[in-house]
Structures are given as C-alpha cells and as structure tokens.
C-alpha cells in the first residue's frame, strides 16, 4: 500500500478550493502552492463558480461551509450527483464540531478547522494528499478488479476463489459446468456440493496445502452427471487474507476418447486372440459372447443361428439366457418372427441393426399390444435389461443368424457401432470356421460352377495361354491384397507359360519349370481373385480347371449352407457364374480328414506347398528358403510349421491320434 501511495503522490493533483472570503482564499492558495508544489490549485468564490470550474481532472474539492446563497453542504450534494466518489473536504470554524459531524453524515470525506492561513495551508496539504491518494488507490483497485472480473468471466474454465472454508467468487463457467447457480456455489461447501465423494479428501488436502497442486478429479453436476476435470489450485492473499484460487478444466471428452481408444485396442487384441485360437463355429461364437459379456453392463449376449425351419437356435449364450426363453425368442413361430418387435427377431427378419429401449417400448401409447411384444418387454424388464441391440450376421452374401446384446443402461451410439463392427468380424469368423469344418465334415454339398471373366486373375492367365492349354489350380494362398497360385499347365511349353505370365497386368510371375508332360508354375494375382471370392462366400475350393476361356470350379460347402446365396455372392464379382451341378457328398472318415482336422492353417499350408513345389523330391526342386518365400514366412518359421505338421501326420498314422505339436 505504501509503494502505491508514493507513486500516486508523485503525480500532480488538481484541487478546487472554494471560499467566499477572497482575501483569505488568495492567501491560502498562495501558501498551499508553496507547501505542495505538486498541487494544481484552482479557486472559486461561490457554489455556482465552483460547479463551473469542476472539470473531470479535479481530484479533490475543499469548500467553506458558510457562503452567500448556497452552503458548502449544498455544493457537496451537487458534486455527489455527478462525481459520487470525488474526495470532498469541508472548512469549518472553531467550535463547529456539530456542523462537521453533519458534513460527514452528508458524505464529506473529512473536515478542516479553519485557523490561521499558515496552519490551514499545512493541514490542507496533508488532508488533501491523503484523500487524493486514497481515492487514486481505490480507483486503481476498482479498475484492477474490473479487469480481473472481465478476465475471469471470459475464461472458459471454471474458476473459484475460496477463503476461510467458503467460496467468495465464482465465474459463469463454474455455474455452466456444475449446473448450480452462483448463489448455491457461494452459500455452501463447494467441495461437498460439487466434488465426487471419492475425491473430496484429496481436494480438501490440496486446498489446505501452501504449494500449488494439480489433480485429476471427478465432479458431480446438479443433474447427477459425472464429469472428469483437472483441478489446478494455487494460494493467494486477498485483501491481506490468505485464500485459494482453483481452476477446473473439463476433460470429460478427452477421457472418454482415451478410454474408447483403449477399449478399441483391447477389442482388437481380444478378437485377434479369438480368431487365432478358436476353430469351430461354436468355439468362435462362445468366445465372442464371453468377450462381450465381460462388460458388467451386459446382462445377456448370444449368437443365434438360423435353423432349417427358419427359426433361431442358440449357438452360444453368455449371461442369464433365461430371458431368451421367457421372451419367446427361441420358440417363436413363423407369425411371431414376422410381427414381433423383439430386437433379435427384428434384426434376424429385416437384416441390419435393431435397437430397442425397453422403457420407451413399454411406455409408448398403444404398445405393446401384441402378446409377443408384451412378452419380450416384460421379460426384459424382469431381467433388468434397459437397452437391446441386435445385429444380423452376414458374410459373403450368406446369412449366419444374429448377434444379440442386452444391456443395463441407456443406448450409446458408440457402443452400437462397436457391436456392429464386432458382428461384421464375427460373420467373417463364422464363415472361416464353417469352411474349416467343411474340410473334415462327414457330408458336404459339392457344387460345380462355370466361371467366365477374361480380365480376372487366374482366368486371365488361362486366356493368355490359349485355347489349347489346360491350367489346373492345386493350391491358392492369400497374400494380403493378392493371391499366390500353384498350378500345372498342359498343352503349353515352359517358354509359353513364362511369356503368358509376363504379358499380363496384375499378374506377378514366380517360378516356372517343365516336368515330364506338364509345366509347374507359381504366380500372384491381384483382385478380383477367384480364390478370395470363394473363401469369402464360405466355400472350400476343391479344384479349378481353366481351359478354352472357361474355369470349371468345384467347391465344397458345409451341409447346412444353401448353394443359391453362395452362387449369388460369387456372381457379384465376375462376368458370368453358372452352377452346372450340385449334390450332397458323403466323406469317409480317413487319415486325410483326420490329419486336416488336427493341423493349423499355417501347418497345412506349409505341408501342401512343400509337396506341390517339390521340396520332398530328391534332388529337391525347391529349397526350404524358396518354399518359405513362396508362402511369405521366414525359413525358420516354415521349417517349424513343417515339422509340426509332419509330427501330426506320423502320430495319426502310427498312434491313431494327431500329435500335440
């Protein structure tokens, strides 16, 4: 405060001195200028004269009380109308203490007893300087507080100032964030009112400490919502008293985004493990349901597969599956499946995604009015289910059934999108598992197709070889955006095959070698790829023969898979696809099927490519490094898979059981 007074006193102060005694006024003004050369002293002989000279730069008025016409008190009243905070001192005669008291009550800042000129000038210098400094300090403080409040109110973060256990200031952002009005925040214990119960002790400790603190905390808004915030606390001295200033920054969106990223990462890792470790349709469905059901908000997660009669049977259920029976999902007849709004039945019937909020369904006017609707809504309510999301399971044009997830809590768009992504992956996994099962099934549906498309992959190779050549595909390996084919060609020379492969865009030649009456070749093709299309549609490629501009394709389908949707899915990628034969085929249980059941995809791939490329012949037509390059793995990885596959084959041959390797 002292430093501020000295600095303000260094500036000239304009003083208006008012007295009807001209001689006395002249002497006092002269003496005052000598006593205080930093004062700019102006004089007036009447109230009217004083008002005329009262400009904006005047910082203090000193007036006599007794003047003709209007008194000093009347001048005070006139000054206060326009300049309510302007310092005003009143001259009084000796013995007029009562008058001085009235002057102070009327709003005067001080009074001076009029004595000799010298004494009056000395007293006047001290009192004026004090009044001006006080006014300047108060004005600077007010301007500073105004700037501070403007700054605080325009900051987007919530700000509060606490002192002696109470809050003395909050900004508008604090009321917006918390939902409480300013009066509620100022009246109560802000920690008790706003801070999450689990974080209150930490916040109180931070407010009590003298060092700055930064905390991750949660707050509870007036409507019960939890928000995540960063609280920065610092300690200040306000009006000489210690206090704390807190800044709350809402980071809820960032926290949710980070959690969503972590959940997506965990989801991808969990799904990768499922796809790697599970082989059968049941195992895949159970693993997906277990993963979804690990969320504590999930009451029931299930995968229903289409029955021969067009209904739904549970392939896997996680949680309290009694809801499915109570809601009539599992035993729904054709009429119920056609009309019900139950989410799983709706998604199964219409495809896509069905979302239902149980409370909304129960409260809609006039609904549910059908028995099937009442049944599922009541069953869901009894099971504590609040939201249901069901997604149809399709892959490669084939309908596998439905994924149904029944949750406690409100509908969430992000959760819905996540389930849709999971359903898409699950459809692919079921397709792959079903194809794998078809390799060792006791009965399959064998389909013979005629495929024509001169510009597509292996068909383009056949066309380039000419009508006299016959190309037989033995093995197809996926290679990211392309496929690697291992084929034999009859009716063409090694040079002709080499030239044909080199002439095609989208085809990358590999090894070409003549052997007896055939040419063995390896090449990569870009999409559209016949092998990929067959696998995506759920088929197992048995044989492909390309001759005379046409590919004859033999595919095995799982017994339960209808051939029509498979052919339609394949036809979407090629100019002409015609099914020429279809029959059920019984597969004898032999060592081949048994061994295939025990091999992983990589083991089977390593064993077959090694055989097709002459690795087992003497002398070897391909080295281990060359076979490894052909299947896109390192030499050590290839030999590891190959040895594991060989151990399983030998174990089946000699022990009757696949090996554990």
Characterise the protein shown here.
- InterPro entries: BAT_GAF/HTH-assoc, CheY-like_superfamily, GAF-like_dom_sf, HTH_bacterioopsin, PAC, PAS, PAS-assoc_C, PAS-like_dom_sf.
- This is PAS/PAC sensor protein.
- Keywords: Phosphoprotein, Transcription, Transcription regulation.
- It holds the Pfam family Response_reg.
- This protein is α+β, with helices and mostly antiparallel strands and 661 residues long.
- It has five domains: 134 residues, Response regulator (Rossmann fold), CATH 3.40.50.2300; 100 residues, PAS domain (Beta-Lactamase), CATH 3.30.450.20; 161 residues, Beta-Lactamase; 144 residues, no CATH class; 66 residues, Arc Repressor Mutant, subunit A (Orthogonal Bundle), CATH 1.10.10.10.
- Helix content is 45%, strand content 28%.
- The two termini are 86 Å apart.
Rg (CA only): 46 Å
How are the strands of the biggest sheet laid out side by side? 19-20-18-17-21-22-16-23
Low-confidence residue ranges: 1-9, 657-661
| SS element count, helices | 26
Within the CATH hierarchy, at the fold level, what is the topology of the largest domain?
Beta-Lactamase
Count of discrete domains? 5
What would the principal axes of the Cα set say about the shape? Answer: elongated
Total DSSP E strands: 23
What oligomeric assembly is this protein in? single chain
Structural class: alpha+beta
Q: What's the CATH H-level superfamily name of the largest domain?
A: GAF domain
Task: Estimate the strand proportion.
Answer: 25-35%
Major beta sheet summary: 8 strands, antiparallel
Query: Termini distance?
Result: 86 Å
